[in-house]
Amino acid sequence: MFRTAARLTRSRIPTHTRLFSSSGIRRMEIDTESPAALNSLDTFTEEEQMLRETVQRFAKEVVAPKVREMDEKEKMDPAVIQGLFDQGLMGVEVSPDHGGAGMSFTSAIIAIEELAKVDASVSVMCDVHNTLVNTILRKYGTTAQQELWLPLLATKDLGSFCLSEPASGSDAFALQTRARKDGDHWVIDGSKMWITNSAEAGVFLIFANTDPSKGYKGITCFITSAPIEGLEVAKKEQKLGIRASSTCTVNLHGLRLHEDSIIGGIGRGYKIAIQILNEGRIGIAAQMLGLAQGAFDNAVPYTYQRSQFGQPVGTFQGMAFEIARRAVAIQSARLMTYNAARRKEELDRRGAEDADAIAAFAKDAAMAKYWASVVAQDVSGAAIEWMGGVGFTREVGVEKFWRDSKIGAIYEGTSNIQLQTIAKFIQKQYS
Fold it and tell me: Which domain of life is it from (predicted)?
């Protein structure tokens, strides 16, 4: 149990920021006079470290006992969702005035990483809710929208981000969903695919084109609660991995929303999506990082317990070098992920429209997402081999890390899209 008053001298977090404990969020006194003193990318403030320990405990005590059952049933346990809200993990960056914890982006990344060490499905649910849905409301919502929606998202309603469509995946702005004006309302028709959290969500962000003649510049972001007439959560996909995370088709048939439901203004949806997906990519990098570490942590101890030819298999040079190489890869992914997170925070602090700084951040986000997904697939696959036959069984759960890892190369921009993004920045720099 955390003490309820502590002086953290290494952060610039508002006084009385709320922190997490095993019994929920507690208030902490924060010294706002001392500057941050982070000596390396994986050095964390006392507040961030306390959060990490709390999420670790929640993941071990609440999530871990339910992982296999949720995976086999392909359904998220409602108690896990409720637990995330109870712990304050669904409003990490939301201000205390709106029922959230008022913590940093890096704090959200820490939570995502720690959850993924135990279950990538729970991790991505928390990730999409925080880095996409909540962030859009915090950054682009009006005061009235924030006061209405953020308390719900921080305390009880799961959020869903509806951008992808049957013909709009990597080409995210080839949207066919349309919104037409009808008095002071908009009527939306179309279909969304691959929508995370949609089976359990109570809040939906929907991207639709209000003026197809303007192409992607007509794309607008709307918000609505659910259930609501005109919004149907349809087919639930049966997936290779992250099976407890719901991924559904969302059909929109005459969905009628008041003009107050527009986020950020008419035609601003494409800019919102571009900017927010950079942050989302860091979230997926954190998920893949946690997954890789989880697979590593589960498999490596076994190699020192299992003996062949008179010695633990992990002490054979061939195996030892394999383990060491993966440890290096995980650490490199960790540094890239947290570098991107810290860069994002620095951009927020500066509040400047510095094109070079924004470009550097976008490149770092793409690099982190790409590399972490590569590392996750490699480490989780190796972990199965390190455990031999038992690793191939579902009993120990290592094979699940491998199944879950594959999605990292696909969502929030495929690996080829990340490489294309990185290459464009390199070309601009050197040509």
Answer: Eukaryota
Across 288-312, average pLDDT: 97
The letter for the amino acid at 64 is: A
Burial of 229 (0-12, 13-18, 19+ CB in 10 A): exposed
Q: Hunting for tokens 């407890």 — which residue is that? A: 244
Q: How many residues does the chain have?
A: 431
Quickly count: other Cβ atoms within 10 Å of residue 161's Cβ: 27
What is the spatial distance between Cα 257 and Cα 179, in angstroms, rounded to a whole number? 10
For residues 248 and 234, give the distance between their C-alpha atoms in angstroms, rounded to a whole number: 6
Separation of alpha carbons 191 and 208, rounded Å = 10
Tell me the two tokens of residue 245: 């995370």
Q: Chain centroid to CA 322: how far?
A: 29
**Is 187 within 8 Å of 256 (Cβ atoms)?**
yes
Distances (CA, A) of 370 to 204, 206, 367, 407, 416: 27, 26, 5, 12, 9
Distance CA 26, CA 349 (A): 25
| Helix (H) or strand (E) segment spanning residue 225 | strand 219-225
Q: Among the options 114, 165, 279, 412, which is catalytic? A: 412
What pLDDT digit, counting tens, does each position of 232-270 carry? 999 999 999 999 999 999 999 999 999 999 999 999 999
Token pair 């007439």 is found at 229
Q: Are 63 and 80 in contact (CB under 8 A)?
A: yes
DSSP three-state, residue 36: coil
Backbone φ and ψ for 40, nearest 5 degrees, come out as: -155, 165
Beta bridge mates, 247: 196
Q: pLDDT digits over 27-44, tens only?
A: 333 333 333 444 567 678
- The predicted model gives 221-230 an average pLDDT of 98
Measured CA to CA, the distance from residue 364 to residue 338 in angstroms comes to 10
Q: Output the CA angle 81-86-92, nearest 5 degrees.
A: 90
- pTM (2 decimals)? 0.91
